[in-house]
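Incident log, structure service

09:12 report received: a user says their structure output differs between two submissions of the same chain.
09:20 pulled the input from the user's history:
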Amino acid sequence: MPHYFTLPAPPVRVRLPYHQATAAQRALAVDYLQQRLAAHFPTLRVSSWPVALADHRPDL
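09:34 re-ran on a clean worker, output below:
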């Protein structure tokens, strides 16, 4: 009998409300945004990223 390999299902993405995120999760979000968007906002200071994220409170 042939053996078939099964691939694991991709992880389910869940939106996490900002107010429920831990400090570590918020820090990861800030790091991710800085890496992805810093070239688009070169004049935004590094210290301003967490403030901007907290002001907008997006789902993570």
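09:41 both user submissions now match this output. Likely a transient worker issue. Closing.
09:42 reviewer note: The chain is about 40% helix and 0% strand. Residues 20-38+47-60 form one domain.
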